[in-house]
Amino acid sequence: MGASSWHRIDPVDVPAEGRVRSVTVDGRTVALARCGPGLGALENRCPHQGGPLGEGSIENGWLRCPWHGYDYDPLTGRPPEGFSDGVATYQVDERADGVYVRLPAPAPKPRTVADVLVETLVAFGITHVFGMVGHSNLGFADAMRRAEERGQLTFTGIRHEGAASFAASAYGKLTGRPAACFAIAGPGSTNLLTGLYDAKLDQSPVLAISGQVPSKVLGRGAFQDLDLTAIFSDVAAWTAEVQAGSDHAELAALAVKHALDARGVAHLVLPDEVQTQPSDAAAKTPQGRLAGRLTQPGLPELARAAAMISASMRPVLTTFKAKGLIPDTHPLGAGVLGRSGTPVASWLMNEADLLIVVGASFANHTGIAPYKPILQIDDNPAVAARWAIWRAEKARRAADERGRGVSAAAVFDALSRHLPHDAVVTVDVGNHAYSLGRYLESAGQPVLMSGYLGSIGFGYPAALGAWAAAPGRPVVAVTGDGGFGQYAAELTTAVKYGIPVKHVLLDNHSLGKIGKEQLAAGFPVWHTSLHNPDWAAYAGLCGAAGIKADCRDQLDQAMTRLFAADGPAMLHVSQDPELL
Length: 580
Description:
- This protein has 580 residues and is an alpha/beta fold.
- The protein folds into four domains: 5-103, Rieske [2Fe-2S] iron-sulphur domain (Rieske Iron-sulfur Protein); 113-275, Rossmann fold (3-Layer(aba) Sandwich); 299-381, 3-Layer(aba) Sandwich (Rossmann fold), CATH 3.40.50.1220; 400-574, Thiamin diphosphate (ThDP)-binding fold, Pyr/PP domains (Rossmann fold).
- The strands form five sheets. Strands 1-9-8-4-3-2 form a six-stranded antiparallel sheet, with no helix packed on it.
- Helix 10 runs antiparallel to helix 11 (382-399) and helix 11 (382-399) crosses helix 12.
- The model is unreliable at 375-381 (pLDDT under 50).
């Protein structure tokens, strides 16, 4: 250990008579107290419960702990007579140029269980973590900090844990590889659940990491004490609590392996004290642990499929979840089928003599006819004619304007023309998503969505994950005002990290899809209206570019500005709620 050294205290941090305060000195926290003629500097941690003494008070000449009222001499750190559990003190020198505190050189930090876990996760391909640092995950957070300093890991601190799990889910959807989401015990971890269910239902690999209260108080009703293993048992394909005697590296390796093998959620629970326990264990590596995941069907199945395809005469259409996999501009592409789809695709479904259903369910939203023969891809000149009919109708709808905002058809007509060819698009849940499926003509850009869970709020956090997965590609988030309102503070996350998300926000001041569903069910529209800020002004307040379009004639110029902007930018479109 090196020699101690003196550190000058900023004059504004020196307490007045009868006061105590916490002061950060050389990256460490010190309780600085003035009582009578003396000035004391104490370790800023009560030895009983760890309370910050600098947040306490001086009463009758004693420094009182703010957590449980235990007293110490503010100059010497000694307890009252009859007790021996004092607090360490540091030498103080009041000089002409200010107050100085002498601190010992920091003790070298041992390698910890958290280091073993992080090193193994990095070796198994975890490069991005989205989350929030808090009191029950500090040891693991510090291990991630060291990995980030080594250039092995990128951590993105979010404003709400739900955004972290949505971002990790989007990362997995785009890459097929897991990112991690990270939270504290209790509510921090339960906030992850919605995004994790999105990953589970859409088969996206994600690693969830939860801090946990100390093992000695588990099950005793401690603050934020929840049985996280039980809570995550349904959403996670695999969950484990890391204990003092665990094979820590093996559990980290198994977590990544289960996330990949199950194409879903793996979950690690880290009790607070275990994270910082010293460890000399070696990190595990993936050699021989991760098998290839490409499989080949048998020859009889291939022959049967080839025969079915050769006998069929129709082209290709996609479900909404597959939008972008087949470009809408391809001569055999027929667009999206189902509730978010085009008349072109619906017509082809009715005419089809064979369906190739690739990775799609038969949920009622898809529009897939289960009574058709299953398999198919070929050419048919009738597709071009159907597209001509639909494109003429789209042009008519794009031209519609009632003086109450912009039509969705006009928004997506403009976006189709301005969307970069290599962009990644994320879309939220709501009427705007149906309109995107109908009107946006993708040239092969992938579209990420909350497919089977259909969770509102997905769109903007997913864009953060898409950027992490593909930092060199343009990332475009398309949301409504309802979904974005749930995670609006994440715009400050994009600004903080310089994440250049281009956001198209369709604002109809309502939960429009829910209002339509109320009417369709025979109910009056009730409590679906929203009170919104000026979203473009909000973007500016957050440090992003804010752009507005209130009528169709402003869209092209606004889209040009959106994609030319440096850093995160938002195009706030005032949408006519009836022109979908």
